[in-house]
Specification:
CATH topology: Nitrilase/N-carbamoyl-D-aminoacid amidohydrolase
Largest sheet: 6 strands, mixed
Structural class: alpha+beta
Number of helices: 5
CATH superfamily: Carbon-nitrogen hydrolase
Shape: globular
Number of domains: 1
Number of strands: 17
Strand order of the largest sheet: 5-4-3-2-1-17
Helix content: 10-25%
CATH architecture: 4-Layer Sandwich
CATH class: Alpha Beta
Length: 287
């Protein structure tokens, strides 16, 4: 299949997980009716963004990989014959939790999960309190409609993950996200939005792939999630973008055959100096 419609869902969140789950399912079905074959939800879609405080009570929202989020959406994927990327708060074992995403194929089978590799710790983004860093590496999932990779939110600032996914054959990179501005950073918000979009579009350009980034929207506590979810082509061109104020379903027709054409004209992967990159595995390099 050379062309596939990719869908991403930008939502507000309610304090009740069941409400968020029902809304997500309804929007997934809407996207499927509009022809989307691969659909991705935003980071931790089933709850409010819990990491604004360090609160042990929030661990009650964690669930195993075969928990209610993935199980319910596996049935939806099978019924609609769609691929789903389902972010969830994973309870791996007592005291070990991850910020994860399951990839469900169009027959409802779970192809695997990705665990967020880079874990932030900023004001109102206290994720290190909740999440153990991922240990599954950067994975590529061969779905019915395309080869996809999932990276989550803070991962978007690191080009290494995108590059490894592309080298493994990913055609579409999904970045489910929960990003916004803190009340204290209101003046910096415009620049932060530009940086957020630019870094992800640069992954599309540098690797010749499609990038899809669903973000949440609306105010939660001290955070204003700025929406602006988007889908980018392999030249970094914006194929679809949401606004900053409301829920939206974005769908873009992605012609996967463009990847080979783009890489022929811009052969960044061919010209990599893999013999000279050993220092990349060091924290710092002495001059």
């Amino acid at each position: 299949m050379s062309k596939v419609k990719v869908g991403i869902i930008q939502m507000t969140a309610d304090k009740d997980p069941a409400t968020n789950q029902a809304k997500a399912i309804a929007k997934i079905r809407q996207a499927a009716r509009r022809g989307a074959k691969i659909i991705c939800l935003q980071e931790l879609y089933r709850t409010l963004y819990l990491c604004q405080t360090e609160n042990h009570a929030n661990f009650k929202y964690a669930e195993p990989a075969a928990g209610p989020s993935v199980s319910a959406l596996s049935a939806v994927a099978r019924e609609e014959k769609i691929v789903l990327v389902v972010p969830f708060f994973e309870r791996r074992a007592a005291g070990v939790y991850h910020n994860s995403a399951a990839v469900i194929d169009a027959d409802g089978s779970v192809l695997g999960i990705y665990r967020k590799m880079h874990i932030p710790d900023d004001p109102c983004f206290y994720e290190k309190f909740y999440f153990t860093p991922g240990d599954l590496g950067f994975k590529v999932f061969k779905t019915r409609y395309a080869r996809i990779s999932v990276l989550i939110c803070w991962d978007q600032w690191y080009p290494e993950g995108a590059r490894i996914a592309a080298l493994k054959g990913a055609q579409v990179l999904f970045y489910p996200t929960a990003i916004g501005w803190h009340d204290a950073d209101k003046k910096a918000a415009p620049g932060q939005k530009i940086a957020w979009e630019t870094i992800q579009r640069s992954h599309a350009v540098a690797n010749g792939v499609f990038v899809a980034a669903p973000n949440r929207v609306g105010r939660e506590g001290k955070l204003n999630f700025w929406g602006r979810s988007f889908i980018s082509g392999p030249f970094g061109n914006t194929l679809a973008q949401a606004g900053e104020k409301r829920e939206e379903i974005l769908i873009a027709n992605c012609d996967l055959s463009q990847i080979e054409s783009v890489r022929q004209h811009w052969p960044f992967l061919r010209d990599r100096r893999i013999d000279a990159y050993g220092s990349i595995t060091s924290r710092l390099v002495d001059a």
